[in-house]
Specification:
Number of strands of chain B: 11
CATH superfamily of the largest domain in chain A: P-loop containing nucleotide triphosphate hydrolases
CATH class of the largest domain in chain A: Alpha Beta
Oligomer: heterodimer
Helix content of chain A: 25-40%
Strand content of chain A: 15-25%
Number of domains of chain A: 2
Shape of chain B: elongated
Order of helices and strands of chain A: HHHHHEHEEHEHHHEHEHEEEHEEEEEE
Largest sheet of chain B: 9 strands, mixed
CATH class of the largest domain in chain B: Alpha Beta
Number of strands of chain A: 15
Number of domains of chain B: 2
Strand content of chain B: 15-25%
CATH superfamily of the largest domain in chain B: P-loop containing nucleotide triphosphate hydrolases
CATH topology of the largest domain in chain A: Rossmann fold
Strand order of the largest sheet of chain B: 3-2-4-5-1-8-9-10-11
CATH topology of the largest domain in chain B: Rossmann fold
Radius of gyration of chain A: 26 Å
Largest sheet of chain A: 10 strands, mixed
Shape of chain A: globular
């Protein structure tokens, strides 16, 4: 239906201005930009805003004031608590909702353990400071162990009992924190290649409509389906970038709609560079998936080995300082490790340790190979 | 995943022709294009592209799995009261778990092959109806030794000679010493596994094949090597998962030096001094690809140890063992320590040769 501008509930002098300039229908009006109205028709800013208010335009565009954002931030339920004080502290409260977080680290450092732990943590009932939500687990490596989830659940239950001074588990059961519930609230996907991974993301869109309580999507690992991409073949490189981008756009869509946390694990790979002058090659350990991907994650956590201790560091974030803590992997998953010499302050600032987050200087191994 | 041709999807004829003109024949080709790229290529509105995507994904069956079923599947290993220490090690740490790709690495002579022979007997005792495929690339396979080790184990479990014969009939050995032969075998391995009802696939060793074929430190060779490794790992994992077998791969060790690169005094002698380290071969990325990593190494002349350094199931564990001329692999001591170890930065101890 094409409405005539004269029928709009706006002051008469505005109507005349419009008709004078040949604007007769509302559709025509809607095609004009505010700058056109001001520049060509001599509208003032107040008049334009009046006009748009009556036209009910641009209502769908949502923005948030910093004030609102700050209020949301202080709202503790905007994080998935890990129940590990040190990790919660360096992450500013836990794994953030509405963000894509990346967990990268060498093999066997505990990435999968953290993922499984978070699937349990996201389900902690609200009375115990959790979210009481559900989780999706996308497994590309085949390392998911449901028996470990049971173990993590038991250990988490014990911790909650201790933290809230509960005498027995009845209190937990009352709030639906039981093993049956925990297991049925993790949706598990097994993907073997990149095509399935993308298909899986499309399936998640439908699943999320049915279960809006889902607050965590874990992909363990995002790197593995792309490791066999031949980097010398430009076609398959484009394919990799496109599929990653498609996955990212679905991720952002889900984040916008449901305010979920997305946790992605990434592998480490050895990058070999050869010095032409001396003909010696050196290698550094860098996260896989390349530089383009490195921009996509909002938060990057690096798990690494320091001698025989494990260390977790925040190394890309717009709101957190670069800090690191020591940790150990226990029955419950990720737990703080307190070193004897500085038990009071395990959190150390190492702002200078990472000059460039994609080039971990302290993870660099330079070596010459003899027989390989 | 097998490619799905777009012609199977009952798309409108006009659209299908357009797609074919742009050499998009399979679902994979289509979904690996960005939506806007397709709009331009096909000259169709975005809504039509979205419809196209929708049809595609309807034909890619991906559904979440119920974890209860998964637990049932993972807990199928029966609890047998008659387990010896070795079998306990295997089952507690789920080394013979279907769907897992496990790796064993260690210096020469530490007992990797002995461990495998023991593993073969364990596997047979628990799944007597299934067979084992053993790919030997180092010409190490010794049937007499296998029978000797199995005999001791079978005595312990009250098994007869017939069982032993039965076992030997169900272990199939493929000796492939060069890369092309190995590659050829890998093409047919899936059929072999199905026909022979295999429950355990052993590659002894992957490293020797890979290192012989991709030798040298030229970046392009290293690149080819890493590509091959990622492909074969994904292949083996798919085999493990969908054909219900456990896959065990043997890895070798290499020596690297800790000396700075641009040191002119740096000579081969450094290998023998403390400036060098022995680590598992095949590189860092490979460590990601395996589900379980076991390390065998020397403690002193007699005793050796087995370390469980990467596993999604168990914490770091240490087993002390000796190699016995009759029983083979004999576990003497077990220790579960709270310490942990970096699976990439192992300093593997070789045999302490006395001067």
């Amino acid at each position: 239906m094409n409405r005539h501008v004269t029928s709009l509930p706006i002051p008469n002098h505005l109507k005349t201005k419009l008709v004078k300039n040949g604007i007769e229908s509302v559709t025509e009006l809607k095609n004009l930009r505010p700058t056109d109205l001001i520049k060509d028709f001599g509208f003032t800013r107040t008049e334009v805003s009046e006009l748009y208010e009556t036209l009910d335009m641009y209502k769908s565009i949502k923005s948030m004031s910093v004030f609102e954002l700050l209020q949301q931030k202080t709202d503790k339920s905007n994080f998935i608590k890990t129940l590990t004080p040190g990790l919660d502290k360096i992450l500013g409260g836990g794994l953030p909702l509405g963000k894509i977080s990346e967990l990268c680290g060498a093999a066997g450092v505990g990435k999968t353990q953290v993922c499984m732990q978070l699937c349990v943590n996201v389900q902690i009932p609200e009375v115990f400071g959790g979210l009481g939500a559900k989780a999706i687990y996308i497994d590309t490596e085949g390392s998911f162990m449901s028996n470990r989830v049971v173990e993590i659940f038991n250990a988490t239950g014990n911790l909650l009992k201790q933290n809230f001074n509960l005498n027995n588990r009845n209190e937990l059961i009352k709030h639906n924190f039981t093993i049956d519930k925990i297991l049925s609230n993790i949706f598990y996907y097994r993907c073997v290649d990149h095509v399935q991974l993308l298909a899986c993301f499309n399936n998640i869109k439908i699943l999320m409509e049915k279960h809006p309580q889902i607050k965590l999507v874990v992909i363990d690992s995002l790197a593995y389906p792309f490791r066999f991409v031949d980097f010398k073949d430009s076609n398959s490189m484009t394919m990799k970038t496109n599929i990653l981008n498609n996955i990212m756009s679905i991720s952002y869509e889900l984040i916008n709609k449901y305010n979920i946390a997305i946790l992605v694990t990434n592998q480490m790979t050895t990058r070999i560079t050869r010095d032409v002058m001396s003909n010696l090659s050196s290698s550094n350990l860098v996260p896989a998936l390349g530089e383009t991907w490195a921009h996509s994650a909002n938060l990057r956590i690096l798990l690494s080995w320091k001698n025989s201790k494990r260390q977790a560091s925040v190394c890309k974030s717009s709101y957190l300082p670069d800090t690191s803590i020591f940790y150990k992997i226990t029955e419950r998953g990720f737990e703080d490790e307190f070193l004897e010499n500085d038990s009071n302050d395990t959190i150390k600032n190492n702002t200078n340790a990472f000059l460039n987050d994609s080039d971990f200087t302290n993870a660099q191994i330079k070596r010459k190979k003899f027989d390989d | 995943m097998s490619p799905i041709p777009l012609s199977n999807l009952s798309l409108p004829k006009v659209l299908l022709e357009k797609l074919h003109q742009n050499s998009i024949f399979q679902v994979e080709d289509l979904i690996s294009k960005a939506p806007m790229e397709l709009v331009k290529l096909l000259n169709s509105p975005l809504s039509q592209i979205e419809y196209l995507y929708k049809i595609c994904f309807q034909n890619l069956p991906v559904e979440p799995i119920n974890i209860f079923d998964l637990i049932q599947k993972q807990n199928e290993i029966q609890s047998n009261s008659n387990l010896d220490i070795f079998d306990k090690l295997i089952f507690e740490n789920e080394i013979l778990k279907k769907g897992f790709l496990s790796e064993i690495c260690g210096p020469p002579g530490v007992g990797k092959t002995q461990f495998l022979f023991q593993l073969c007997s364990s596997n047979f005792l628990n799944k007597p109806d299934s067979s084992i495929i053993y790919i030997d690339t180092e010409n190490n396979f010794n049937p007499e030794r296998l029978v000797q080790i199995a005999k001791e184990k079978f005595l312990y479990r009250d098994k007869t000679e017939d069982d032993l014969t039965n076992m030997t009939k169900n272990i199939f050995v493929y000796q492939k010493f060069n890369f092309s032969e190995f590659d050829e075998l890998m093409k047919f391995i899936e059929f072999e596994i199905i026909v022979k009802k295999t429950s355990l696939l052993i590659i002894d060793s992957l490293a020797s094949i890979v290192r012989r074929e991709f030798s040298g430190s030229d970046p392009s060779v290293l690149y080819e090597r890493s590509l091959f490794l990622s492909k074969i790992s994904s292949r083996l994992k798919a085999i493990a998962e969908f054909l219900d077998v456990a896959v065990i791969v043997i890895n070798q060790i290499i020596t690297i030096s800790n000396k700075p690169l641009n040191n002119p005094e740096f000579t081969l002698k450094a290998v023998e001094t403390e400036n060098s380290t022995v680590i598992p071969a095949l590189g860092n990325s490979w460590t990601h690809y395996v589900n379980i990593r076991l390390v065998l190494q020397y403690v002193d002349d007699e005793r050796r140890e087995l370390l469980l350094v990467k596993s999604p199931v168990s914490p770091f564990r240490r087993y002390i063992y000796t190699i016995n001329s009759e029983d083979g692999f004999l576990i003497e001591d077990f220790e579960q320590s709270s310490e942990s170890i970096n699976p990439n930065d192992l300093k593997i101890r070789s045999k302490p040769y006395s001067k």
